[in-house]
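Posting for a labmate who doesn't have an account.
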Amino acid sequence: MDGKMLARIGAVVFIAMAITATVVEMTRKEDAPASPSARVLQPERDPLRESQRRCQQLGQSAADDPECLRTWAKTRDHFLGRTPAPAAANTTTEAH
């Protein structure tokens, strides 16, 4: 066998393998994607996030809103990994 014949046989084998791979890939059944209604992931309702959004929409006036100030304090504590301070109890006593 000379070199030309060996090269032709190699080319024919390569083309045959490429065609076979193409046919196999085209006949393979594709997995149907899961229907959107079956796998709808609803994020858990987060009151802190909702409050942050409300304060964001208030814009500059949020700086004077007491609820926004509480929200920012909670956010800051969460970010810094601190446990929120317990609500200040009324420690004033009335003298009779």
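Reply:
Got it, the structure tokens are right above this. Residues 85 and 91 are 16 Å apart (CA to CA).
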